Amino acid sequence: MAGIALGLAVMLISVAVLNGFQKEIREKVVGFGSHIQISHFDSNNSYELSPVLMEDETIEQLKQIEGIKQVNGFAVKAGIIKTNDQMHGVVLKGVGDDFNWDFFKDRIIEGRPPLLNDTANSNDILISRKIADLMNYKTGDDVRMYFIIDNQIRGRKFSISGIYETGLTEFDEMYVLGDIRHIQRLNQWSGGEVSGYEVLIDDFENLDKTALEVYSVIDYDLDAQTIQQLYPQIFDWIQIQDLNVVIILVLMSLVSGITIISTLLILILEHTNDIGILKAMGTSNLKIRKIFMYATLYIAFYGLLWGNLFAGLLLWLQKSFGLIPLPEDSYFLSQVPVSITAWDFVLLNSAVIIVCFVMMLIPSLVIRYISPIKAIRYE
Q1: C-alpha dist (Å) from residue 108 to 104, 191, 197, 281
Q2: Nearest-angstrom CA–CA distance, 335 and 24
Q3: Are 227 and 36 in contact (CB under 8 A)?
Q4: Whole-angstrom Cα Rg for the chain
Q5: Model-wide pTM > 0.85
Q6: What is the separation of C-alpha 207 from the centre of its chain, rounded to a whole number of angstroms?
Q7: Which domain holds residue 339?
Q8: What pLDDT is attached to residue 240?
Q9: Are 55 and 189 contained in the same domain?
Q10: Is there a contact between 107 and 126 (Cβ–Cβ < 8 Å)?
Q11: What is the average per-residue pLDDT within 51-66?
Q12: What's the pLDDT tens digit per position in 247-290?
């Protein structure tokens, strides 16, 4: 029972941790870049993107695609934050009043999101804790940011409305969020021109399918890239974890199977005399095999029960209290994330039951080769 329980618990915890990693990191990356980004075809890897101007009719067509929940424009521009004794390069991401702040609201540790409206430009910006610590800023401080326009330096004054922290060091050290109209004015764009459009969808599993539909709607000179295409290194790193979990699942399945085989063989050896007596009385091999298979199923059932309870308790404790921490700089998370569904429990339990049942058939075949005369003499 302990062997089966431990094997199942390890499998459940492995799947829960993998799902948790994928979900948390995916949500963080999507929070910065959305699921799909629409921009001009451009081989330029800098943050000075060619302006995009999409017609309202095209935007409405995008919103009508099944699974899309939001489409909003954004603009980015590289700049430098400077104090008396520090300089730090950043990317100012400009957004409008239609931007979805849900992701950042959950990760703002001080202050509030920038207040954006239609009447006037907002000087509010949201910076990361990394930048705030580096530049010695706090909520409410004024920030001077400098941009290079046509080989000339132009400065803008902003006010810090809030400080966020996501754990994604690569993004936290770089992104500052503010009003899109500042970037439009710096680039001398019209009010409708933006660096691109962000598309949020309901189901990440339909990402590639939805991206193809988006691409079919937009103009020929625009490209629709998924978040996986924009940040392949992060998603490749996540996929590597899949192989680790597969290895763990295979090993634990073998452990459970070997446990069942050894258990059933021990039962048969211990009851060789009883088997001989039953055979001498005319009991068929099949009926005797069923007796031992029922006994093994009893052991397997309670092994699965305790395994589910043990894994469920550990996962609940980790999710509720974060008992196991992680180095955030390496894993992008401050604690081990866990996420598992009822369907995962059903699939893993079913797999273990099938493995155990198949493994039970192997040693039970030994019964047919037991001679009643020799078995009755067996001590």
Answers
A1: 6, 29, 24, 77
A2: 11
A3: yes
A4: 30
A5: no
A6: 14
A7: 2-22+235-377
A8: 84
A9: yes
A10: no
A11: 91
A12: 888 888 888 778 878 887 888 888 888 888 888 888 888 888 88
